[in-house]
Structures are given as C-alpha cells and as structure tokens.
Amino acid sequence: MCACARHSERAPEVGYVSAPQVTLRDQLAQIYNKVGIAKNGERVQVLDRERRFARVRLESGQEGWVEQRYLVNEKIFDAFENMVRQGKDIPVEGRAATRTETNLHVQPGRDTEHLYQLAEGAKVSILRRATVEKSLPGARLIAPGPAGKIDKPMEDWWLVRDSQGHVGWVLGRMIDLDVPLDVAQYAEGQRIVACFVLSEITVGDKKVPEYLMLLNEPKDGLPFDYNQARVFTWNVKRHRYETAYRERNLNGVFPVTVSHEVFGKEGDLPTFTLRTKDGSGNVVEREYKMNTPIVKKVSRLDLAPAARRSPALTTFLMPSVSPDIYRIS
C-alpha cells in the first residue's frame, strides 16, 4: 500500500520532443498500433518509463509509448528559451541556409544536447562563432605537433536563429553563407564569414547594394573570427564591383555593426565598426565611414556637433539580395 501511495503521488515529468516527429505506440511489443504523432519541440507529460521507452501524454490528451532518446527534459528546454532571450540583443552577422537536416544544440559540440531540428535549406541568421575540439573516434589519432605537442583538431560552430525564432548552435560546415556571387567571386580562396549591405546606389531604374565583407582563412579553430575586411563599391562606368577598401592581418572579433552618421558637410554617411584585439588581448573598436568610393577611419572630430553628443549606432541587417550561395566550408 505504501508503494502504491508513493506511485500515485508522483507528479508527471515534463519532456519535449527532440526529433522531427515520433510515433506513439499503444504497447511495448514487436507488434503495436500507432495511436498518435508528436512533433519536434512539442511538450509532453512523461507518465511512466520502461526500459528504453517512456509513456507520454500529449496536450491533446493522446497517450502512448515513445523511445526515450527522442525526449529532452525541461532543463534543456529552459536553456533554449534563455538563449532566445539573450539572442535578441546580438547583432546579425549574415544570413545562411542549411546544407542538410541539422540539429540546434544547446552548446557548441557534437555531444551536447539538442532539441530543435532544421530542415534542409532552412534559412538562419548568424549571430556568433565558437570553436571546440572535435569529438570523433578518429580525432585522437593525430600526429605530434611542434615541441612534441599534440595538435587537437578543432571545428567551428555558429550560434544561429531560425525563421521560428529558435536559437541554438550548429556545426559550421552544415550551413552556407548567403553572399551574392558578384562579390563572393573576389574571396580569393578565403572563407567569407560575414557580409553586410553598407549602402545602395541608384543605377538606372534599380538600386545596387555596396558591401562590407569579412573573411578568414579557410580552416576551423582559428583564434579570431576574421582577419580581413573588404568594402566593395559599384563602378557605374564599368558595371562591376571593385574593392574600395581592404585591411589585412586583423585579430577581429564579432559583433561587427553597421550604421549611418552625420559628418558635417559630407552629410549622412554609412559607417561600420570593427572590433579587434590588441597585443594584450583587449578589444578595441575601430569605426570607419564610406563616402563612395572612399573609406576612412573615423575620428569623433569628424562628426557633426549633434552626432558627437549622442551618436546613434544601429545594426543594419543584411537582406537576402541574391539566390546565389557561397559555401563557407
């Protein structure tokens, strides 16, 4: 009787479906009937557990057995909700599309928990980069590096936001940055990690965007987010993009922000701010202005008096301007 009392007082656990969809079984047997379907991210009550299965109840009232590996607990769900709240204040560094079905992880790393799954071709906004050590069976078979050290294989992960507002980490090689081919062709073998529209100029009856592009070496695990910045302006006479500004050997870190400010007689000009680390590891902000086709670093003395008192910095999000895709891996 005591055992029955304890069983009856136990409150149902809460879980969330981490697979695209799972089938509810009516019994734990090789032959069973399908009594329902639960979809990715759906909240369920866990009524019982038996071996590798759990009996759940959907919000619709349907009950059935599902494999426990397709469920995550409420703690994981809350962690994803917290990332959504924190992600609202993170500037977008570019747009990308998934190469194949991929999971949103709660932390960077293949062995970390995941909840939501993105379909092939899903559009995401890129927010932040991180590098972690690979967790593969063959990763330990690495040749010794300099001074007898073992070179640990690293891989890049990106914090992204999907079209439904979910935020999570995805493996970098699973997404492709959306960059117009007209400027992506100038990457010169480097990896494009971010792209922004700085301004638009009118050419005939259409507007042509001008871009800020950030690049990195084509490999994972680098200690900086980017090491090169390029600005592309449109040559009206030659009908092509040209490099208006280029800076190399940067120890750049995200976020990069794009805005507009008033510069006296020059008027309202597009600006961008790069964040780089100095020799001591401190992050230093460097602001630039573009008076097409000239790009220069900004001194606060360049600004109009009103702008000096209260500079208004906003983040300009890159629109999808071309279906052409540049692959970042």
| CATH architecture group name of the domain at 11-74 | Roll
Order of helices and strands: HEEEEEEEHEEEEEEEHEEEEEEEEH
Low-confidence stretches: 139-145, 308-329
Largest sheet data: 5 strands, antiparallel
Task: Count the DSSP helices.
Answer: 4
Q: Please indicate the percent range of residues in DSSP E strands (runs of 2 or more).
A: over 45%
Supply the CATH superfamily name of the domain at 11-74.
SH3 Domains
**CATH C-level label of the domain at 11-74:** Mainly Beta
Counting helices, strands and paired strands, the structural category is mainly beta
Using only C-alpha atoms, the radius of gyration works out to 25 Å
Shape, principal axes of CA atoms: elongated
Chain-averaged pLDDT: 85
- CATH fold node name of the domain at 11-74: SH3 type barrels
| Order of strands across the main sheet | 6-5-4-1-7
Portion in helices:
under 10%
Q: How far do the termini sit from each other?
A: 62 Å
Describe this structure in words.
- The chain is mostly beta strands.
- The chain has a domain at 11-74: SH3 Domains (SH3 type barrels).
- The chain contains four helices and 22 strands.
- It has helices at residues 2-9, 74-87, 181-184, 305-309; strands at 13-17, 21-25, 34-39, 43-50, 53-58, 63-67, 71-73, 94-98, 102-105, 114-118, 123-133, 154-162, 167-171, 175-177, 191-203, 206-216, 228-235, 240-247, 252-262, 268-277, 283-291, 294-297.
- The termini are far apart.
